[in-house]
Specification:
This protein is α+β, with helices and mostly antiparallel strands and 416 residues long. Helix content is 42%, strand content 20%. The strands form 3 sheets. It has a 5-stranded mixed β-sheet with strand order 5-6-1-7-8. The protein has a 4-stranded antiparallel β-sheet with strand order 9-12-10-11, covered by helices on one side.
Length: 416
């Protein structure tokens, strides 16, 4: 154990000279909707300045809150709560329907600006990314100066604001970006941990969820500083492997690197950061089904087919794994993409708690409509294709909530 700790500390020490940014869009979905209304919809009122939120089926008051404005926080409106509960808290809450194509367009534009400043950008979710800025001082100035340049360019060019966290590792950079919002730059270097991070409630630490918080409080651990000074053996006895992970985080230790995203435009995919640790396969596959629906719809809209499918999992400790397969036939059928994703998931998931799931497709072709028949496959692909097209048409006309799978009706797992 002592040798393992020495090796970890040596690895971390070798990374202390890095400069890592975590760039996070402030209230992304709501900000993007607000900017769109102001620029293209003839709107005169900025949703960001009034109690407002994005989420659910507005007419029926179903679904959950996906994003909220800062004024909505005064009414205790919370991301993830049912729309009906939010409206009870704030009857004059202005609701906007989800617009996934708008979010995708803004996300791409956001990432394009980040890639102007570094060729090592890791998109962590649709509205946040890690950027390795090591060695760029001679181009863009000192880290804080560079962060302001990025933040201001995004605001002035795209119309929405971001927070930028700066540190020598990803964990501390992400923690820094969560400090005061919106439109702010914050640092959290190792020498600042004692002052800036340790006084915070333990619930504020990345990857400490509600259940973990309660276990830690029963151990007398109320702040991040308490956790940092706790006996790691006691933590492992109570929280297993997760206890050691959060203890390292409380001490600012994180040896993961920013992983450069592949700059391949010929792929279709989506990912989602989950608000809780997923520990059962059924829940994970429900999320994969939602991702497959989104990806399949985009493929059919562009009239293309794909020949590869891959699934990516980011675990609770920020480690990542992925698995890929080549399909026998090109497809844009949701059911085929989903079943391929499930096969991959079953092959490499070992039960470790999941925080992010991604589904990517590749090897895009524009002549994949002709399918080679097989004597051993009696699937009616033509029927599946017609069904997908019919659902796409209904959703285009009446909204994403007009047609839902029965499996989604009693769950909040659908990624809207």
């Amino acid at each position: 154990m002592f040798r393992k700790k020495q090796m970890f500390e040596k690895e971390v020490a070798g990374l202390e000279d890095r400069i890592i940014f975590h760039v996070d869009v402030n209230s992304a979905f709501l900000s993007w909707e607000a900017v769109h209304r102001l620029r293209c919809g003839g709107g005169v009122q900025d949703l960001r300045t009034i109690p407002s939120a994005v989420g659910g089926d507005i007419a029926k008051r179903h679904g959950v809150i996906l994003a909220k404005s800062i004024p909505a926080k005064k009414y205790d409106i919370r991301t993830g709560e049912p729309v009906v509960d939010a409206v009870k808290k704030c009857p004059h809450l202005v609701l906007a329907a989800p617009n996934h194509r708008l979010y995708e367009e803004n996300s791409h534009a956001f990432m394009d600006i980040l890639r102007k400043y570094s060729d090592v950008v890791e998109q962590y979710s649709i509205d946040e990314a890690f950027v390795d800025m090591t060695g760029t001082e001679w181009l863009f100035g000192k880290p804080v100066e560079a962060a302001y340049r990025i933040k201001d360019e995004i605001r002035d060019t795209l119309g929405f604001t971001v927070n930028v966290g700066i540190s020598s590792n990803k964990l501390l950079a992400k923690m820094a970006s969560e400090f005061e919002k919106p439109d702010k730059v914050h640092t959290l270097f190792p020498q600042e941990i004692k002052e800036k991070m340790w006084p915070l409630p333990v619930r504020e630490l990345f990857l400490v969820g509600g259940a973990s918080e309660q276990k830690l409080k029963r151990l007398g651990i109320n702040t991040i500083g308490d956790l940092a000074h706790a006996d790691v053996r006691m933590l492992k006895a109570s929280l297993k492997k997760h206890g050691e992970a959060v203890w390292n985080f409380a001490n600012g230790r994180d040896a993961s690197v920013v992983e450069r995203d592949a700059a391949d435009n010929k792929c279709y995919g989506n990912s989602t950061t989950i608000a809780f640790d997923v520990t059962d396969g059924d829940t994970a596959k429900m999320i994969l089904l939602s991702l497959a629906e989104q990806v399949g719809s985009r493929l059919r809209k562009d009239n293309v087919w794909i020949e590869t499918v891959s699934v990516t999992i980011r675990f609770f400790d920020l480690s990542k794994a992925s698995h890929q397969c080549v399909l026998d036939q090109g497809t844009n059928i949701t059911e085929e993409i989903y079943h391929a994703a499930c096969r991959l998931f079953d092959e490499f998931w070992d039960g470790t708690p999941i925080r992010l799931l991604g589904l990517q497709t590749g090897k895009v072709v524009r002549d994949g409509g002709s399918r080679q028949l097989s004597l051993f496959d009696d699937t009616d692909y033509e029927k599946l294709e017609k069904l997908d097209r019919a659902i796409d048409n209904i959703r285009d006309r009446f909204g994403a909530g007009a047609v839902q799978r029965a499996s989604f009706l009693q769950t909040d797992k659908r990624q809207r």
